[in-house]
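Q: Here's a chain of 334 amino acids. Please give me its 3D structure as tokens.
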Amino acid sequence: MLKYIAGRLGQLVPVLIGISILVFFGMHLVPGDVAQLLLGDKGTDADLQRLRHQLGLDQPVYVQYARFLIGALHGDFGVSLRTRQSAIWEIGQGLPVTIELSLAALVFAVVFGLAIGVVAARRPHSLVDTSAMIGVLIGVSMPVFWTGILLLLVFGGILGWLPLGGILEGGMAVRRITGMPLVDGLLTGNGPVVQSSIRHLVLPAVALGATSMATIARMARSTMLEVLHLDYVRTARAKGVGERRVVSHHALRNALLPVVTLVGLQLGLLLSGAVLTETIFALPGLGRLAITSVLARDYPVVQGVVIIAAGIFVLANLLVDVLYAYLDPRIRYG
């Protein structure tokens, strides 16, 4: 297993290099002059040439890529063209917020998706099953931005139960340890911050995780229906094992295998969906930073965001493969 994990970690290198090539040259195909954008209409030709030289934009593009790649290997993605801050510092400010949001959405999707799928499978073709599948179909059909706006309108605007956006109440602050407001509130024992961060996290997490929850529920129902009709489950029932124990101890573990794969893929979708969710709920995360940077043609920040997001996605898939071996001991890797 350790050999397999080491091999998969080694595969990260060519994958990330390939992504860096696509992102770097893709950004340079975007029309427009960065130096002209930064200086505006007031810049003279001499100013433009001087700024291009400072930014290294007067070098051949392959030289620019080589400099970028060497810097990236040392954790340096350059300086933001928009704020003049280090790109990795900018990313470090937004990444924890995105991770906290994505994990909250993933927990919501897995817990409720599995529960709905298992309950529906235990009563196939019943009113509960039909209602659950209708809800699943609605969940899969609704895009993230529409779900977010609807939740904001109902629970934030009309009912006023939850805040409309942001990560904490105005004027509230917490000592930064991880950058995740909820985790930092727990680590520092700050009850008001924990309460406020949960209130601000509920609507974005539900909006982001709704589609994944519906997808997981549909998959869980399908696989659970298959497993419940296998011989070993019938044998357990014939021996007098209770239905609840049959489901939780015998059927659920095998039914989880395809669900685990699906969860790994959903994590990538959650990261990409965070772009819209963070924009709707005004969260200062990585997705919102990416949108701002793309609009400003801030190459270093965009390249750093994409490469780090790709690294997280590949690591998530590696975690899924390891979980596979844990859930099914028959699976071994060379």
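Q: Can you summarize the key feature?
A: The CA atoms of residues 20 and 26 lie 10 Å apart.
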